[in-house]
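Q: Structure tokens for this one, please.
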Amino acid sequence: MKYLIYLVSFSLLFSACSEDDKDSKENDDSSKVENNEEKFKDTLAADTEPLIEAQTSSTDIDYLIDDLGVGPVKVGELLEASDIPEYYILESQETDLGEGETGIIKLLKTKDGGKLLLSFTQDCSEGENCVTDQIFVSDPNFKTSSGIGVGSTVNDFKKYYTPAMVIGNEYGNVYMYSEEVPNIGFEVLGIPDVYPGKEFSIEDVPGESLISKVYLYNPI
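A: Here is the predicted structure, written as tokens:
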């Protein structure tokens, strides 16, 4: 039940972040029209070139999703702001988990522009040492070793993984799990006749449906 509540909360969080990104893009486009083209290009290059170079040319950036974690965030481990590479920023946000319960979500963003890459929660029930127990990935750069991530199709998933469980929720979303990496769920949106806890065959999910998020949890 706790994991299902977190799945709902994160779906709402990512929807809000997507709207913010859309509004931000529209504002940026308007700004480009209003400014002198050459002046804008010079200013943009001067302001953004160092940060873009730091993010895209560094061989230290880890975009791997595996059963241990996602990039610099590992399940079962504590992650503080001081632990992350300099091209990321780490923020905390309180979220409503329902039934009068609140929780803290950690947001990992790019340092340039604050684009949301992934979010995660930390379990502090064992005392003072909190550990990461769930990770939600929204950025398509993060992929498994087989190249599967946000933007991959269900057919792509089936090429590399053996479906173990396909289960739905009340929002029409389906989570696909595999035998190879059972603690990683791949979310697909807009599947008809979905209800909470309903199990599907992988053949019930259209092959060209896109993976919208990747969800990883601590199996221990």
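A few notes: The CA atoms of residues 148 and 156 lie 7 Å apart. Residues 29-59 have pLDDT under 50 and may be disordered.
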